[in-house]
Amino acid sequence: MQRRSFLTTSAIGATAGVIATPAFAQINPEVKWRLASSFPKSLDTIFGAAEAFTKRVAQLTGGRFQIRQFAAGDIVPGLQVMDAVQAGTVEMGHTPSYYYFGKDPTFAFDCAVPFGLTSRQQTAWFDQGGGRDLMRDFFKGYGIINFMAGNTGTQMGGWYRKEIKSLADVKGMKIRIAGFAGRVMERMGAVPQQIPAGDVYAALEKGTIDAAEWVGPYDDEKLGLAKVAPHYYTPGWWEAGPQLSFYINIKEWEKLPAQYKAAVETASYECHVTMQAAYDTRNPSALARLIKNGAKLHTFSRAIMDEAYKISTAVMEEEAARNAKFKKVYEPWKRFRQDQNMWASVSEQTMQNYLISIGRK
Amino acid sequence: MQRRSFLTTSAIGATAGVIATPAFAQINPEVKWRLASSFPKSLDTIFGAAEAFTKRVAQLTGGRFQIRQFAAGDIVPGLQVMDAVQAGTVEMGHTPSYYYFGKDPTFAFDCAVPFGLTSRQQTAWFDQGGGRDLMRDFFKGYGIINFMAGNTGTQMGGWYRKEIKSLADVKGMKIRIAGFAGRVMERMGAVPQQIPAGDVYAALEKGTIDAAEWVGPYDDEKLGLAKVAPHYYTPGWWEAGPQLSFYINIKEWEKLPAQYKAAVETASYECHVTMQAAYDTRNPSALARLIKNGAKLHTFSRAIMDEAYKISTAVMEEEAARNAKFKKVYEPWKRFRQDQNMWASVSEQTMQNYLISIGRK
What we know:
The first copy, chain A, is an alpha/beta fold. Chain A has helices at 2-16, 20-27, 44-60, 81-87, 119-128, 131-140, 167-170, 179-187, 200-206, 217-223, 250-255, 258-292, 302-322, 324-346, 348-360, and strands spanning 31-37, 65-70, 92-96, 144-151, 158-160, 174-176, 191-193, 211-212, 231-234, 243-249, 296-299.
């Protein structure tokens, strides 16, 4: 409707020969973008939140700014979304920045690092604690501007064929895990493996791998791993609050009228809220079903957590010593984390722990 | 600029005598609203987030939808924002729904009830767990449509002249507290008092009251209560995650074009995120300063928490028994809370507790 009225108005402008209508056209141009997602449609919480984002942007621009989302593999593989946005193959992407850890570990601060921020802390850091400026400064080097676009909350620690009772059980364990966590796991004695999600079930069944990490109950349930690797561990210490991001090619971003930029900025906040809310709403019943169907819930032992933390810290300090970009983010981030955990311990956590204790009664 | 181009286009339309431009005018009318806040400008985190909301809505509508925010008392007192929106005195308000507990305790589910949801759980419930539908059905009876618009996170339990070591210390204690918490406190033997924020310091200094609750470190610091009531308790068990809301008069809402409705909906998500992120970012340093300046931090004892929980549950069950509207929300809400705390105990909390433990080292 909006489009049709614009076209008619435009025709009038041409007839009357005045500049007013072209000015309107300039402010509200028709724009069509492609968004490459790092995820398949089956991860419907993530994919669905981005889909709602594209619909909202269209609504906010009277249907004139259309963004079409493509699933991982449709245009580029899920792990190459950053490259596609950088190259301008697509204008936009939806991806977790730690996928690009191999290019520069600094990417991970935009998503999650081992023993990093919870989702609420990550949001505070990015939105109000200086994180956005630090990360955008880094992303500029890739010709990309980044936006918060969802969080899963603390992920689970994955599925294991056998119980992991002590550090000795970690030695030699073949686990499907990548990036920062893979580097830490390797130093703990495990053998990180790269296997596409679709092949995980078979690899666990055959014993080609001993363990695999994925997301959390709602997404994990679809893979059916409880049958072949029933020991379900918590917490995913490498993903306390992994943030999803929208990437936009900076040149394309700069072409947008101010109103369209505002639409993208605002709608990405909505995506950020709805994705986590959807995970939080769906995870409890999924976990209950998993347990009913044979998943055995365990918590990593204190000794394993302590060793993972010690190694994670060492890996991060080493990276900071040799990588100035990493260090520039890491130092203020570390202070922010310290402050946030102090504050959480005083208020939120005291309350949450009490609520959990009464829920157990 | 947008406005000027519209006016010129409009003039052309009139000259040409076609219907296209009036259709555009109908889609993008100039709208001016007033927003009554329940808060003074000095609560800059809350007030500022709503201000950013009004700016965003203007941006998203090319400056054609202007909302002007007024502080508490400018048009109506802070506690009468609901009435003003209902009556159409203002089109919109920004307020915590538990202020209207006296009209119907059901309002409190839109904000906070004792031992209720944390901010993340409240967001999940409202946005994806059925809360929005339940609350909007209730608000219809007041001619209002409500939106999430911020959260403070778990608040502090307030300032006390003397230590509260046991339930005996609660008996006869005059505390500035209202609504649901006031009703629970009263049954615990305390004497709830209603005192404007500006008079709290003097009342505590003179001993007219023994205690007062406000918000959290960042806002509390401005009142300077540590000097007259140094014992600072946690957690504010009556406010695990109080949500702020935007209220809009339904008749005014229905007059808006779809694009303006979308602008309000989306921008309220942004406000929801930025307010909490700002509190989270500002609270840690404020707490550190408070402690440096004499505040003595305490945690309510398990016996006090248990008694407060027992009475809170009794009060809610009684309300559900006599108030069908309350019961309609309470029953599904109770199940949601149970599920959320189970899930939090498995994943998020396990991680957060570990992060706190390493932060303390």
